[in-house]
Amino acid sequence: MTGWAKDFSFDYYRRLVNGVCATMEPRLFREVPILDPAERHVLLRHDIDCSLEEAVQLAEFEKHLGVRASYYVMMHSLLYDLRHSSALREIAAMGHEVGVHFDLPADCDENDSSLVEALIQEDCERLEDLLGAPVYSLSFHRPIQQFLRGPLFLANRVNAYAADLMQWYISDSRGSWRCGEPLREVAKSRQPTLQLLTHPIWWGPIHMAPADRLQLFFLRLTRGKNLQERSRVDDDLTQTMPGIRRNDLYLPEVADAAVAK
Predict the structure, then answer these.
(1) How many domains does the chain have?
(2) Could you tell me if 198 and 220 lie in one domain?
(3) Residue 194 counted as domain residue
(4) Are 141 and 102 in contact (CB under 8 A)?
(5) pLDDT for residue 245
(6) Which of 9, 20, 109, 158 is the most exposed, fewest CB within 10 Å of its CB?
(7) CA distance to 21, 44, 139, 237, per residue, from 92 (Å)
(8) Shared domain check, 239 and 144
């Protein structure tokens, strides 16, 4: 089932945030334990699947809007390297929260709760070392069934997929709003708390179709690379975002011309 994907511009995101914040207070996931259940809140969440650059751009835009959000970063990303980037500290310095976007290794048993929590703890400690600050929450890249709508805390951090935080949840997952146009959805006031998940890779100063945005990201990432390197990036992108392939973009002249536009 295809969802709504007609506007992924910053202007539309501004309208969405302003519409939500007209009736709900934007809060961070690290603040969940102290929230007053009698009040209305929106949890703005961003999962950084592909690009730190787009995440910083969105964080700056939100700072301009006067709102704070929770950004979740993959500690074992195939598409970006945290060790050589100042992006996380820049995002945190703007007042946003930075947490772990946890991805369970393929060879691990997701039914082993103790193992999963131990791996979450390791990722959180690694992120804390990079940030020089505590990590209070996490989201899952590929949700584990036993923790989906599960406990509020995992490894002593707030679980974004906890049952209490998923009663009203809308997302632009895979570049599509399955709920329909989100501005109409947020106007329905279904629950006291809304979790609004967006992925920075889909958003920019002007609207682009998600497929075009992802293509441009691929071309930027592979510019000047040979066929073998392009193929490796394609595999990394496919593994990070299943169902996405860019095999037709390997020709150097195609990639370089597209990026130069």
Answers:
(1) 2
(2) no
(3) yes
(4) yes
(5) 53
(6) 109
(7) 21, 15, 17, 26
(8) no
- Residue among 144, 98, 96, 97 at smallest CA distance from 119: 144
**Tokens (6 digits) for 191:** 């629950």
Model-level pTM? 0.93
Residues 6+ apart with CB under 8 A from 85: 52
Within this chain, do residues 99 and 223 fall inside the same structural domain, yes or no? no
Count of other CB atoms within 10 angstroms of residue 143: 16
Same domain as 230, residue 168? no
**Interatomic CA distance for residues 254 and 248, integer angstroms:** 9
User: What local confidence, expressed as pLDDT, does residue 22 receive?
Assistant: 94
CA dist 7 → 16, 105, 203 (Å): 11, 34, 9
Q: Cite the DSSP H helix spans in the chain.
A: 10-21, 52-65, 87-93, 113-131, 182-186, 210-222, 227-240, 252-260
Residue 33 lies in a domain: yes
pLDDT in tens, 236-258: 888 898 766 554 444 444 444 44
Residues 28, 38, 167: CA angle, nearest 5 degrees: 65
Write the CA distances from 229 to 74, 218, 222, 225, integer angstroms.
22, 12, 7, 6
Give the pLDDT confidence score for residue 4 in this predicted structure: 97
The CATH number of whichever domain residue 58 belongs to comes to 3.20.20
Q: CB atoms < 10 A from the CB of 53, how many?
A: 15
Measured in degrees and rounded to the nearest 5, phi and psi for residue 143 equal -55, 135
Last-in-domain residue among 202, 225, 241: 202
**Confidence at residue 257, expressed as pLDDT on a 0 to 100 scale:** 46
Q: Which residues of the chain carry a pLDDT beneath 70?
A: 1, 243-261
Dist CA 203 CA 69 (whole Å): 15
Length of the chain: 261
Q: What is the pLDDT of residue 231?
A: 87
